[in-house]
Amino acid sequence: MATIPHRDPYVDAVLPDGVIRVGDPLEAGPGTSPWFDLAHLAARAGDVDVVHLHVGYGALDAGVMEAWTEELQRQGIPLVVTVHQLHGPGEVAPGLEDAHLAAVLATAEVVLTLTPGAADDIAERYGRTAIVVAHPSVAAADPELGAERGLVGLRVGAASASVPDPLAYVRAALSGAVSGGGRLRVLVEAAELPALDPEVAALADAGQVELVAFPAAQWAAQLQQLHVAVLPERCGTHSRDVEVCRDVGTRVVAPSCGWFTDQWTEVVPYSHDEQGGVDAVSLTVAIGAALARPMPRPADRVWRDGQREAVRQVHAEVYAQVAADRSWA
């Protein structure tokens, strides 16, 4: 089978044993996948039984997607789609993501998503029934690493593209951390440090916040050291970082406009929409409420491993079903 993207922590976690991925392990991402090239798809059609597209990693041109799904049908290759992200509920008009989702969902044999709320939204917007599968574990707590009570962490930089005004986020998070008896750590990936907002850097220089630059591979470890992680996620989405926090035992403060509370009950929501931006007062209050709660324990590994196996079994059954239904091949 072919997965788009070819390599990704979520894709790797849900792929059943015995399934052979066809493609280039060095593929850069979903938008650059060679499987979107119609000539490549036609040439390799005999090598795959199923194509599994994970959407929500960036919008693709709707016209391109329509031509691509038509070629899949011409070649008799079943399409499975997992919806990780839809456009934010507060958006005034549907955008590119809506159009490209409509194109792929119209012809998908099976649609999967991660929460009941997202499944309801998919049914309402696109008339498709989605199978809900849990987001599996993608990290494990380091038994040698402790967490600091009262420590609030907020990541800024290019990886947090939903933070158009990082200074506003930092100030609101700082207010919430201090009012809750804690302190704020601003996290920035080391490679992105030169592009840090100078006003955020000035707050760190003045000693009002702690600034930590970290290697990308240490992101889970950074989250594990916190009492509360503030996730400035996009609306209408699911969050891998929520699952990492569940795995390592860190409470989450996340926007109310996604399905983050569907993913994990330890999420404390704050008001945010992609037109008006963050509600600073709401974020401050949410952080204070999160700090008043005890730090959650890391997820039980036996339960998480069992959950991942159950998710893989669902995928195995879906792949077997659509491959068996390939009667036109």
Task: Briefly say what this structure is.
By secondary structure, the protein is α/β, with parallel strands linked by helices.
3D architecture notes:
With 329 residues, the chain is α/β, with parallel strands linked by helices. It is built from twelve helices and 13 strands. It has helices at 9-14, 38-44, 62-75, 96-105, 116-126, 166-179, 198-205, 219-224, 240-248, 260-263, 280-291, 301-324, and strands at 2-4, 51-55, 79-83, 110-113, 130-132, 151-155, 183-189, 210-214, 228-230, 251-255, 267-270, 272-273, 277-278. The chain has a six-stranded parallel sheet with strand order 8-7-6-9-10-11, with helices on both faces. A five-stranded parallel sheet has the order 1-2-3-4-5, with helices on both faces. Strands 12-13 form a two-stranded antiparallel ribbon. α3 packs parallel to α4 (96-105) and α6 runs parallel beside α11 (280-291). The longest helix is centred in the last third of the chain and has 24 residues, at 301-324. The two termini are 15 Å apart.
List keywords for this structure.
329 residues; alpha/beta; 6-stranded parallel sheet; 5-stranded parallel sheet; 13 strands
Please give the alpha-carbon distance between the first and last residues.
15 Å
Oligomer: single chain
Tell me the total number of β-strands.
13
Main beta sheet: strand number and arrangement?
Answer: 6 strands, parallel
Mean pLDDT: 89
Q: What class, by secondary structure content?
A: alpha/beta
Q: What does the overall shape look like?
A: elongated
Query: Approximately how much beta-strand content do the residues carry?
Result: 15-25%
Total helical segments = 12
> What is the helical fraction, as a range of percent?
25-40%
Placed side by side, the strands forming the largest sheet appear as 8-7-6-9-10-11
Q: How do the SSEs run, as a string of H and E?
A: EHHEHEHEHEEHEHEHEHEHEEEHH
Q: What is the CA-atom radius of gyration, in angstroms?
A: 21 Å
Low-confidence stretches: 88-94
